[in-house]
Specification:
CATH class: Alpha Beta
Structural class: alpha/beta
Order of helices and strands: EHEHHEHHEHHEH
Number of domains: 1
Strand content: 5-15%
Number of helices: 8
Radius of gyration: 16 Å
Helix content: 55-70%
Amino acid sequence: MDKASFYAVEGVDGCGKSGMVRHIVAHLEAGGRAAIATREPGGTPQGEQLRALLLSGNDDAWDQQSELLMMTAARVEHVRRVILPSLSRGVSVVSDRYVGSTIAYQGAGRGMAENYIRLLHREAVGDVWPDLVVVLDLDPEIGLARSKRRLSDGAIDEGRFETLDLAFHHRIRQSFLDQAARDPDRHVVIDARGTPEEVHARTLEAIDGWHTN
């Protein structure tokens, strides 16, 4: 495990991404690899400001085109200020969401053309894609209940996407599965049902298997 790698953890809301990112970082560090945790939208002061705008309030707060452009703007800062500099120093990066979420949410969810999203990504940040995408697959109904409970318990104003109907979230789930099916060498799909310990074990086993291939 000499080369620094870029990992993205994807999935529907409430699938356990944030906790999984922390476990992956700890696992990499235990194996002797420097690693950092980050997130999208966010990861930089600029990105966190955009996150506050994008994830709070009512769904009609932004036109879908504005939403896509702000997600991409946050990613430009993230890639240029965090991801690429870290990788160049030999530090692996584990991100809670990346462009796969844009393809799922703004593409499959909102109905924007995936080709346009991919073109915008290439023009904005170049050919920067994760080495490995971990998709935590979970029934959106279960995930939404978890996510709404977490936001309520923590008094966190980031529930804009949780207000959308279940059909929207089913489209997102299917998009993640479709992305993984089209690019299996870069994706692992993990059954996110069960206890956190069970899901963590499945994920770390899959990552170790990917490293040995």
